Amino acid sequence: MTSTEHLQQLHTVRTELDRLERLITEPITSNDGETLPAWLRVTRGESHWPVVAMIALAIGLQLALPDRLLPPHWWLLPGIEVVLLVALVVANPSRFDRESRALRLGSLTLTGVLSVANGWSAALLAASMITGQGGSEAGPLLAAGAAIWLTNVIAFALWYWQFDRGGPAARALARKRNPDFLFAQMGNADLVDPNWEPRLVDYLYVSFTNATAFSPADAPLSRWAKLTTLTQAMISLVTVALILARAVGVLR
What we know:
Layout: H1 3-25, E1 46-47, H2 49-63, H3 76-91, E2 95-96, H4 101-130, H5 138-163, H6 168-172, E3 181-182, H7 200-213, E4 219-220, H8 223-251
Antiparallel strand pairs: 1-2, 3-4
């Protein structure tokens, strides 16, 4: 490669970087001159600290469960979760603004391990209640059930957050236009800040309302979103029904 060709490539890279910088710092307008909402254009990307805090809370809830609701070698799955979380923070210490196969695989693995550990505890809790070995006091039973239920809410919020429009990095880079979840703000552009875009808390809200009302507050559009919300609602319904039934039986 000649020096001229090398300089031309460098110039092309610099031009592309300048274009991306303008996309981030300047509003992008549509063909009719209106400013596009943030969820349709390139943005800075979401901070990773809310995600770290939510995962740390889920790990803490798992460790707070009684020993009878933990899998053998109780430290193994939470230990894997902590190692993956630390590794992801070190590899991407600021924002979710770059796509990386390794980072995405690590993030999905972390969510998967979190879900498996919580599912294991939920199965043990259900088995103990069905066999009448759930304990003779309603308080500890309700506390353990609430911890498992809340961890389940967090786990599904992370699944929604990681798959909607390709994940947080893909959303920041505006890779996909069609959303998997239709948030209310998307249909009321005139009433919403143009810098609004879905964040982790929005997916937590969807997960929480789905787990409590057994129907999400914001509509799932894609088939995977519908099936995932259906699965969460079913798990939440069974968990709540078993816990309340056992608690009522204990109180009587």
